[in-house]
Sequence to fold (198 residues):
Amino acid sequence: MAGLLSRTSTLLKAKYSKFLNKAENPNETLDYSYEEQLKQLQNVKRGIADVATAKKRLEMQYTSMQQQVNKLDEQAKAALAANREDLAREALTRKAAVQGQLEGIMQQGQELEAQQAKLVEGEKALSAKVESFRTQKEVIKAQYSAAEASVRISEAATGIGDNMADVGAAIERAKDKTQQMQARAAAVDELTAAGTLT
Fold:
């Protein structure tokens, strides 16, 4: 039973493969592959834009926090000038906390910068690959069209194409009918000459 299923599976795969080979148009397959590569390239560009946006947000946050550090520093100086060491100490403590956050933001910004550079390099390489594929695709499509035309011309010249086979069959039918008519005309002439027909 297992042997029968295996043979049936192999037979179905062979028939399906043969069907796909007949149905497959290389031009359509190449165009589809090119479109898929363009989608991948678009996704990479979108990723670069997302990273650049995140980096910009960090820069804005960094600027805002730097202003906050400056403001806290001035508050501490004003508190010292007013002999309020407790307020100065509190302002300096908050300033130190914000500066710690600034260092974290700077580190994240550097990581995003490295990630963006890596994505840009990847985009350039992918873009070059897609352009190379596009050129190669057009060459292959032109070669396929030329080969297809050459096959049609050769089949027409040798009479092995489907259309030429139909033409050949039509010629044979016309010859047969002509011979039948000639035979009938000769028979009628013979019968008339013999006096059988008047």
Observations:
- The radius of gyration is 42 Å.
- Residues 85-158 form the longest helix (74 residues).
